[in-house]
Each structure stands twice: as structure tokens, then as C-alpha cells.
Please model this.
Amino acid sequence: MARLLIVEDDDSMAVALKDGFEYEGHQVSVARDGASGLELARRDPPDVLILDVMLPKMSGLDVCREIRREGSRLPILMLTARGQEIDKVLGLKLGADDYVTKPFGFLELAARVEALLRRASGVAGADELAFGDIRIDFRRAEATRDGEPLDLSARELRLLKYFADHAGEAIPREELLDAVWDYEHTPFTRTVDMHIAKLRKKIEVDPADPRWIVTVHRIGYKFTGGSKNVSGS
Model:
């Protein structure tokens, strides 16, 4: 269970997010404007702050700026309006850890919150990955299959790295776009499908019946295998 603070002035959105995260087992507090959100974050720091950009009394960008100015490393996830690219850029420059663009699916938001919680807990990502006859060293950008060199592109390595760090999770296509492609660009989710298809041809015994990267209907993909060797272990 984690403690979350949601700062959102839209009543229906705030209630929906509070209900959703409480159903997931988290403890949730809600503030309806930036000033009260900043006060709550100072008085009783949560594990993750979910912060809307457009807020009364004090904008989410100003709240983020103030929290970072005070030296806090509180994980901050910002909610931005569709098309407000400048908000995303400013938020990241001010110290936000991640952002989600409205409208969004709750599964995507929940997955991003879980990623922030893992990062804050000090759980490192995989430096090496092994599954089936595939071996990958991400630090050296080297891969082999049954001992023979396996030609993987930089994008394919980034995809596998993200899958390895989220093994067993159903990952939405939109999340893969944000994590693996530059946030400044907005390729169609079909781009993900095309890259997954190419990657399956390289790592699956039967790409038509994949074992390692499986499709999760109406969501995205799940990586089902792999033993991770974490740096420093």
C-alpha cells in the first residue's frame, strides 16, 4: 500500500481517481486547488503526488517548482491537457518525474504510479536479461541467441529493457510510446505493433504464437519471461 496525494479540481475526475486507487489498495488524499495541495504535500508528504497542471489558486507547475525548490525528491506525476506540449516540457524541466495526457485510461496511470513507486524504493532496473536461449547485456548493447550474436536495433533494446523492468505487467501501447519513443513525437500506436512484430521475429521460436511478448487484448503487451541480474547484486 502506498500513500497518494491527488491534486485535481475536477470533482468527477478526483472522485474517480480516488476510488480507483483505493480499490488498488492505496491510501489516497485529495486536494482541489494548488495551494492546499502544496500545503498537504509539505505537512504530510505522500509516496507519490499526482498533480494536475491547471489548478485554481496555484498552478500545478508552480506547485512542482516550489516542491523542488525546497529540495524535496517527492515523486511527481503531472496530468496535462491534450495538445499542451509546453506544459509537458515545462513540467519535466521543473522536476516532474512523469506526465500523463488527458484523457487517459486508469490502467495507464496506475502503471506509471507503480513505476514511480518502484523507482523511489530504490529497485534498479535490469542490466542483463535472460529468457529462453536469449541473453542481453543492456550496458554493452549486446544480445545473443543460443550463443550467436543477435542483431537488435537500439529501439528494440529499449523495448526489451522496458519490458524487463515491467515483467508480468500488462503495458498499454500508449505507455510504450511514451517510454520508448521521444515524448516530443506522437507516433500512432500502430507503430508499437509494427516494432513488436519485428522483434518477435527475432526472439520468438514461433512469432505467430509468441511465448515471450504476448498480446493483452484491448490493452497492449506483456513480457512473460526473463531472469534479471540487477547491477550491484
